[in-house]
Structures are given as structure tokens and as C-alpha cells.
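User: New here, any thoughts?
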Amino acid sequence: PLPGLLLAGVDVTAPGIVIPFKAKGRKSRLSRVLTAAERRSFAETMLLDVLAAVRSAGLLSTCSVVSSAHDVLSLAEESGATGLAEPSDRGVNSAVRWAVGKLREVDEFMVVPADLPLLQGQDIRNVLSLGSHVDRVISPSKSFDGTNLFLFSGKDAVTFSYDSNSFWNHLGGTARGGLSLAVYCGKGVLFDVDSVEDFRALARVRIN
């Protein structure tokens, strides 16, 4: 059984946090400004940022990093999370589906990307608080085409659509299933790093 959390005076079961992490081609869109080694290091640094937010929310004990990269799994385990060794790197959708199938005892899942360097523990707790009133909570990327956080029941048949206008596809799937929904747009969830412009924006935030 998973531990409980006290949110707004309500005792709720902690969800299983799933963080998919690519083994190859990490942050390839940043190749104009970073070498391959620097991109690998940067991606791992952002993963540590996300794990710090999960720790701050009190959920590290139910957090799993999914990857076929053994160095990343070791990094996750050194940070206090669980490393789930995916058989091969077949993309985000496959990784999330595999993890959900693997963690059969989990009643509720929260999928969090590994590239949210501004994510805070309070963002995660805010989403859980919303989730106590609705079936699903979805957070979009800043451009409203990606899904930067997804809270859903493990009993639901979810069609994952990452890397393909996922926010609107996940929204539509929720509506077609007749499920209630909340959208959370906290600053720490909206900001992911995919492009050189994102990287430069993050540098400005870090400096300030």
C-alpha cells in the first residue's frame, strides 16, 4: 500500500510518480549551443531538479524513473527514487504505458516529464489537491501543445499521445470518456526546455 498525504485537511493516497527519461538523443534540439556530453549532463541536471520537487512534495518514495539508460537509473536511485529498467528506448508513450503496466498495485498515477527545471513541490501538491475533486488533472506546456503533467486513475484506459499535440489529445480523450477534468497552469509546470530559446530563457531565470 502507498503512503497517504494530508492535503487541505483531506487524507489521500499518494500517487505513483512516473518520470520517463530518454536513453538516446537527449535534448538534441540544443545541439547548436551544447555538445553531446553537455546535453547529457544538462538533461540529468533537470531530472535532479524534478526529483528535488518530488522530494519537496513528500512523494519520492512512490517515484519511479523509467529509462533504458542504466546510468540514469543509478542517478535516480542515488536520489531516493526507484529506477525502472525499460527493456528498450521506444519513446515516451511506450515508456509510460510500460511503467503503468508494471506498477499494477498503484491506484493513481502522475506522469511528470524530466525537463521541468522550475517545477516546485507546491505545484505537485496543488495538482493533487485538484485531483481530489476531479477524475484527471492535466498541465499543458507553455505553448499548449505538450502535456507537462498528467494525473489519472490506474483503472482508466488512457491513450497516451506524448510528442503529438498531446495536451489537446489528452483533453479530448478525457472528454470522450465522460470524465471530469481540471487544468493546472502553474509557472513551474508550464516551463519545459525543448529549444535553444527555452535554454536561453532558463539561463536568464537562473541568473536573476
